[in-house]
Give the backbone structure.
Amino acid sequence: MDYVHYAVNKIVELCSIPSPTGFTQKIINYLVEEFKKFGFTYEITNKNNLVVELNGEEENGIMLVAHVDTLGAMVKSIKSNGRLAISKIGGFSFSTIENENCRIHTREGKEYTGTIYLTHPSSHVFNDVNSLKRTEETIEIVLDQKVNSKDDVLELGIMPGDFVSFEPRTVVTKTGFIKSRHLDDKAGVGILLGLAKAIRDFTTEPKRKVYMMFTSYEEVGHGAASGIPEDVTEVISVDMGAVGADLESNVFSASICAKDSGGPYDYEIVSKLINAANIAGINYSVDIYPYYGSDVESSLRAGHDVKHGLVGPGIYASHSYERTHIDAIEATLKLLQTYLTLD
C-alpha cells in the first residue's frame, strides 16, 4: 500500500474543508468517519479535540498530536455600505489574505462567498494603494451578493461573530509540489492518517501504546492543554517545519525541532527522533524556530508531566499561501513509522 500518496490525497481533501479555529466540527466529523473505517476506538473531548487509541494495553503511551484548526477570521462588524470588517483568528499578516476569495459561515448554517479587498483597492482611483498599511481598518470583505447597506446584509442572516474561511487554492503539481493554504497543519493531519492506516494494516507495528490527538484550538495557543490520557508519558506534535533564512529545513525533508519560542524540546526525544531519521535513511534537518509554538507546549503549560517533541514536513511561506513537496510528506511519515518501532 502506498501510504505516502494516500496521505497526500487526504491532505487535499482536508484542505477543502473549512476549519478556522473554533469552527472545526465538520473536519472532526470527517476524521471520525475515517477512523471508524479503520476500526479504532476514539472519543471527542468537550473542547472538540478528537482522541484516537490505535493499539495495545501497555502503559507508557505515546501521543502524536496534529491540529485541524487553521487561520481564519470572524465578522467584526457590518459597514453601512454592506461590506464586512473582520477580526483575524491566528497570527498572520493582513497582506497575505488581500484579494483572496473567502466564505462566510452564518450561525444558521448558511454560507456566502466574497472577496477580501483593501478599502482602497484600485490604483486607478487611489494614490495610496502601495503605501496604505494593511490592518483591520483597511481590509474588508466584499460579498458576492447585491447588497448596498447594513440592512441588506442583515437580511442575509450575516452577523458579527460569524466565521470567515479563506479559499485554500490547493494544487498538487506533476512534479510533486503541494501548494495550498492551511498545510499548517493539514499536512500533519494527512500524515497521521497515513500512519494510522499503516498501523491498521500491520505494516507498522509500534513497540508502545499509541494515541493520536487532533486539536481544534492550536492557532490560539491551547489546543492540547487538556484531554491527554493518563497513561501517556510522551507527546510529539506533528506540525509544519518552517522554512526560511538561517534554517536547515527545506520542502523536500522532514524537520526535527530542537527549540522554538517556548524553549528547548526534550533532549531524549529530539535525540531519538534524529536516530530514527538516520535509521530510516530519510532527508531531515534539525532546526530552531524563533517565532513558533506548538500544541505540546500548551500541554506542558497546563501541567502535564510528559516528555515532548516536534517533527513535521518542511513548509515554505508559513501562515501564507504555503508549499511543500511529496518528498517531505514521505520523509516525515517514514520517520514516524521508524520512531514507533524503537524501544
Observations:
- Residues 72-166 form a domain with the Elongation Factor Tu (Ef-tu); domain 3 fold (CATH 2.40.30.40).
